[in-house]
Amino acid sequence: xxxxxxxxxxxxxxxxxxxxxxxxxxxxxxxxxxxxxTTYTWSQTYTRCLxxxxxxxxxxxxxxxxxxxxxxxxxxxxxxxxxxxxxxxVLNNINTRLDARTISAILRHSESRxxxxxxxxxxxxxxxxxxxxxxxxxxxxxxxSDDDDDDTPATIHGVHYTYEGMVQKGNPDFQWVPxxxxxxxxxxxxxxxxxxSPKGVVHSHRSLFIITFDSLVNWSVPKQPVYLWTLPMxxxxxxxxxxxxxxxxxxxxxxxxxxxxxxxxxINNHKVTHMCGAPVILTMLANYPGAKPLKNxxxxxxxxxxxxxxxxxxxxxxxxxVSHGYGLTEVAGVVVSCAWKRKWNAFPAAERARLKALxxxxxxxxTAADVVDPKTGESVKRDGLTMGEIVLRGGCLMLGYLKNxxxxxxxxxxxxxxxxDVGVMHSDGYIEIKDRSKDIIISGGExxxxxxxxxxxxxxxxxxxAAVVARPDDYWGETPCAFLSLxxxxxxxxxxxEVIEFCRARLPHYMVPxxxxxxxxxxxxxxxxxxxxxxRDIATKMGxxxxxxxx
Length: 551
What we know:
Distance between the termini: 73 Å
Structural class: alpha/beta
Shape: globular
InterPro entries: AMP-bd_C, AMP-bd_C_sf, AMP-binding_CS, AMP-dep_synth/lig_dom, ANL_N_sf
CATH architecture of the largest domain: 3-Layer(aba) Sandwich
GO biological process, one term: phenylpropanoid metabolic process
Domain AMP-dependent synthetase/ligase: 21-402
Domain AMP-binding enzyme C-terminal: 452-529
Pathway: Phytoalexin biosynthesis; 3,4',5-trihydroxystilbene biosynthesis; 3,4',5-trihydroxystilbene from trans-4-coumarate: step 1/2
CATH class of the largest domain: Alpha Beta
Number of domains: 3
Helix content: 25-40%
Radius of gyration: 24 Å
């Protein structure tokens, strides 16, 4: 069979950009984007992306250069997920809740050549540009206006172009730039900011093609769903559902701001079928005072942290069908999920909710997932008890970290991507995610999973949000410290000792929080992840706790 070899006919580069081209043909007259009073069809979206891509090329930006976007979930943000790479550039979505100094550092590190930014964020972006060192050439600035009457560049200092101006001047017959090689970089996303040193994750056209297909199959997304954007598109390109919605001809319902009342109204008005978000979104929807049972079921894919079973139970009682997915920026989407077994349908509701919150098996597009001993690299026992590091292998993995070969080598070694997440492997081959390695609390030599403690805290009817971190302890080394926000209108408010007693009745004593701190709201990233490093700082500054006499 020596004559059977790859050819230009069967080895053309894979890229998710082709999904939009096909959507314009198959779903041309169907709605692609809905936002306030604006609706576009897939034919219009394809044309607008071609125009915008041609305009980016006309700016003299070279193939492979980085182009950044700072915007919420508005139509322009969705279009840019296609238009920037269609111009041959690398798309860099930036978290809108970062401070100007961090954004400036990202622009410098990525050597961004242009920044598309939302008009509501102009002061943030302009400040970040002003912080660039004198020797660093500033990127071109393109304003995205949210008004019908687009601002002109002359009205805003430093702005070179407007978004709609570029679209109107662009060529609708532009021949978009396909990758020469499917391994060419397509996106650059910086890690979410739950640590103090975010890294630039580079993904290829190939990895994003694979993860997009995989995400659709894994979630059983049908043709022409109605997808509500409650997950920020800047978070791993919306877990790749930006390109996925084009593949299935879905309707993208965009929301500028996230508010429970607005979300419920959008679900009812647009007959939403699918949405994604961090567990904090589930909590927001579950605890909304005006929540009523949905008229039709809505598929909700959550990830970022294991959702508390109590929250899953509450949201499913409202009509949401919750699925739990595990992934990280380095894999661009969900790669471990709770593949539901038919026999589980006979379990009590509380048990079904627990399984959805904690269990997971690799998706079809991932080659392998395992839990290994971080010291030996050997697989841990399949007993559901022995903890180890979750490792992944497959075609959706990143190329590496931009300009950081040391971090890349540390993360990708021995044929695996080492996630830094802690889990156990059950006898049936399902992984249960326990914690981030840095979030495991070691108290008196015992490993305490903050996720398990948080799950119990969420079952308290007064608790709205919960996060558990380590506090220094003179006797035990570390003890669990719980940070809580309470549901609106709770009266009387629980005392610290009441929360501790609540946990003591449901947890081994060594896992019970020794300190409880009440806050109006827990600090979070824009993707809904609790910033545990900030809470650890607070717990550390509280000083050591001498608890031996109380144990």
